[in-house]
Write a structure and sequence with these properties.
mainly beta; seven-stranded antiparallel sheet; single chain
Length: 105
């Protein structure tokens, strides 16, 4: 859906059995530039129970000396991630994904 966009995810498990998720994306266009326009990009974690949980909104912007758009999100989850994916959404805090993923791992 978004040619040229890329991302990377790092997940670490801590001593309390929680997972720290670091998500970095590049070259995602502004959500309102999509067709149809959307309000934001939302990151989701798919759990071992096949549930999709909203883990946060990704803000993207251009750096001072860069032409590419970059965004990041760092969060914690008590659920073991099976898959991380990003969807464009009309709401900042949707309870379920309403669009096809633009990036997935």
């Amino acid at each position: 859906m978004v040619p040229g966009a890329s991302g990377a995810v790092k997940i670490k498990k801590d001593e309390h059995q929680n997972y720290t998720i670091n998500l970095n994306v590049r070259d995602l266009p502004k959500a309102n530039d999509l067709q149809p326009p959307k309000r934001s990009y939302v990151a989701w974690v798919e759990t071992t129970e096949n549930r999709a949980l909203n883990i946060g909104t990704i803000s993207t912007g251009k750096g001072l000396f860069s032409k590419s758009r970059k965004g990041e999100l760092e969060t914690k989850s008590s659920f073991r991630p099976v898959r991380i994916f990003i969807t464009p959404e009309n709401e900042q805090t949707p309870q379920i994904p309403t669009a096809e993923p633009v990036l997935s791992t």
